[in-house]
Write a structure and sequence with these properties.
The structure is a single chain. It contains 29 helices and 17 strands. The chain has about 625 residues and is an alpha/beta fold. α9 packs across α11 and α20 crosses α21. The chain is globular and about 80 Å long.
Length: about 625
């Protein structure tokens, strides 16, 4: 395998812990697989090399590359795994040391929710706290010190005592000989930390430990890494400039303090970008230089001829129209649709582009998520509008009859459905059930309220109807429970609803609005080629690791990018800047940064990141 001098130096280094600081497009994966191949050439047994990746897909790809490089069979690489996969192998072998009589069952989320719900009810707390409490338990486990986590956050919603619930939850899992997904790591850490014989066994087994995407490790994963590595045979690869997952518990400080945590460690820098033109690389460098907390490196590219442009617009409609026009121009110049991407900080931004691309016959594919009208909260609310407009839309009525929960289960639905005669719709059958009072008093009351709400919104404008539904059914409280207390997820869904209301406000009646919604949705069902060959619409987070000839980073406005929820501390703002760096370095040749003075009818000034780019362009 041909390597650059910098890659070769890192690959051939042994004797002390090493951190490879690999810039965007610098051949990180190539270096990591070459390192494993080199170790095997030097006599290290492949079965004793632990290589950690962050996804099962990445692990499979690495094994396939290693098979091609070394000529060895797939079975020669049993320890190329994710953290969870590797730890599960250890747990299965030593479960008796943790008090399990047999290999513990891994509980699925719905099983974990049932346990927490039972515990909350037993302690006289509202079961609506189930998902948020379970989310806090997960964060606590991944912090590596649940006790300390709950000392800092003793209660949920000011009432639920988290340490008490946590201990009861853990005890119930133990009684049922079960573990949850987070316990796979936590119990393995306990086992390695507290049982020297087991720790020594695996330190002896693993003659080398390698970790990919090291900047994304959380506290628990970092502790596991240190417990499994021995004699300095540790090789970590990553890029702190692309650390963008703190909301998942990732801690960039492990990367920044590597030489402090592993005395005698050596740092290698891969600075040549093989993906992007140098014009793009240099401007991205200038933006990230504004971050104080980073490992210094000077990235460059030998490619020339890159384009970097900034374009302001009055509103998101003009922004989307310009991007569509530019895509047509690039496509006529020979650039394939799937080599172009529109990237945004927040999901709601996709709607204007979905609508404009459809109108302009531009094929597109949603990456890392669903189309705007395929998202749960949008489907729920649009379904309410559907049944108000279309009496016999049984699919939509069946969706909303128990959203939020009204106690209508399959048995009740069957009972209502049995009342239908001829071509009577399900909603008409429900009306008959209410009139004849064949339901329990509680079901009668909740179903009557639903039917009254549907009648109430029929004459309203689309935006008024949506706001009334959200208010009357307590939809935001429902979403808070649904998102398990994940504030980031809840905020994203709230923004999607705000965007839906704004889009609906441009229509006078329900039918016009619902027709537009159907047209935007139908492309996913109509045209398989669009899924394969279309322009990519993606959040920046979902685009990490990908590359495109031309990239449009849209929505570059204050409060949106950087996001308003990430401006409360310097650390959060630095992560937003790293996110911009990731977005910029997805582009190979053309990078376009756009902003809208007025988005969703609200004014926002241009992003501070645009000022930093502009200063670089003027040099």
């Amino acid at each position: 395998m041909e390597l650059t001098p910098q890659q070769k130096e890192a690959v051939e280094h042994t004797g002390c812990p090493a951190l490879v600081v690999a810039g965007a497009g610098s051949g990180k994966t190539r270096t990591l697989t070459a390192k494993i191949s080199y170790l095997i050439e030097k006599g290290f047994e492949p079965e004793r090399i632990l290589a950690i990746t962050f996804t099962n897909k990445a692990a499979d790809e690495m094994k396939n590359r290693l098979m091609q490089l070394t000529g060895l069979a797939l079975s020669s690489f049993p320890w190329v795994r994710t953290y969870h996969s590797a730890c599960l192998q250890i747990l299965k072998k030593h479960h008796t040391l943790l008090g399990f009589s047999s290999t513990p069952q891994i509980y699925q989320p719905y099983q974990c929710e049932k346990i927490v719900k039972e515990i909350l009810l037993r302690h006289n707390y509202d079961k609506k706290h189930t998902r948020p409490v379970l989310y806090q338990i997960s964060l606590a486990k991944n912090s590596a010190d649940p006790d300390a986590y709950f000392r800092e956050r003793p209660t949920y919603a000011y009432t639920v005592p988290m340490d008490e619930i946590f201990n009861a939850y853990q005890e119930t899992l133990k009684q049922r000989s079960a573990i949850d997904f987070d316990n796979i790591l936590l119990l393995t850490r306990d086992l390695l930390r507290d049982t020297p014989s087991v720790r020594n066994q695996y330190q002896d087994l693993f003659t080398y430990v390698l970790v990919d995407e090291y900047q994304d490790t959380n506290d628990l994963q970092e502790e596991l890494t240190a417990l499994l590595a021995s004699e300095g045979n540790l090789f970590c690869v990553g890029d702190d400039w692309q650390a963008i997952y703190s909301f998942r518990g990732s801690n960039i400080n492990h990367f920044l303090a590597f030489d402090d945590n592993y005395p005698g460690a050596k740092l290698f820098r891969l600075e040549q970008n093989f993906r992007s033109a140098d014009e793009i690389v240099q401007i991205a460098n200038q933006v990230i230089q504004k971050n104080e907390n980073r490992v210094e490196k000077t990235c460059f590219s030998e490619k020339r001829g890159g384009v970097v442009e900034m374009h302001p617009f009055y509103n998101e409609g003009q922004e989307a129209q310009w991007v569509a026009s530019k895509i047509h121009i690039l496509h006529r110049a020979g650039i394939a649709y799937d080599q172009m991407a529109v990237l945004y900080r927040t999901k709601f931004c996709s709607l204007a582009f979905e609508q404009t691309f459809r109108a302009g016959n531009i094929p597109y594919q949603m990456m890392g998520g669903k189309g705007f009208f395929d998202r749960k909260e949008i489907l729920d609310l649009v379904s309410y509008l559907n049944v108000a407009q279309f009496e016999k839309d049984d699919v939509s009525f069946e969706r909303i009859i128990n959203t939020p929960k009204r106690g209508v289960g399959p048995g009740t639905l069957k009972k209502i459905g049995a009342l239908r005669q001829g071509d009577m719709g399900l909603m008409d059958a429900a009306r008959q059930a209410v009139r004849e009072k064949i339901l329990t008093p509680k079901l009668y009351s909740s179903l009557k309220e639903l039917l009254d709400l549907i009648e109430h919104i029929k004459p309203l404008s689309p935006s008024q109807a949506i706001m009334e539904v959200v208010r009357r059914i307590g939809y935001m409280d429902f979403l808070e429970s649904y998102t398990k207390g994940n504030q980031r997820d809840l905020t994203s869904r709230q923004e999607n609803i705000d965007q839906l209301i704004y889009s609906a406000s441009r229509h006078d009646n329900l039918q016009d609005f619902l027709e537009e919604a159907s047209l935007v949705k139908e492309d996913k069902e109509d045209d398989d080629e669009m899924v394969q060959d279309g322009v990519k619409l993606s959040t920046i987070h979902a685009s990490k690791g990908l590359e495109y000839h031309s990239v449009f980073v849209i929505g570059c406005e204050e409060q949106l990018f950087p996001h308003w929820k990430s401006m409360e501390s310097d650390a959060e703002l630095e992560e937003e800047r790293r996110l911009m760096y990731v977005a910029m370095t997805r582009a190979e040749r053309c990078l376009y940064l756009t902003s809208a003075q007025c988005r969703r009818g609200q004014y926002n000034p241009p992003s501070r990141f645009l000022s930093e780019v502009e200063a670089s362009l003027m040099k």
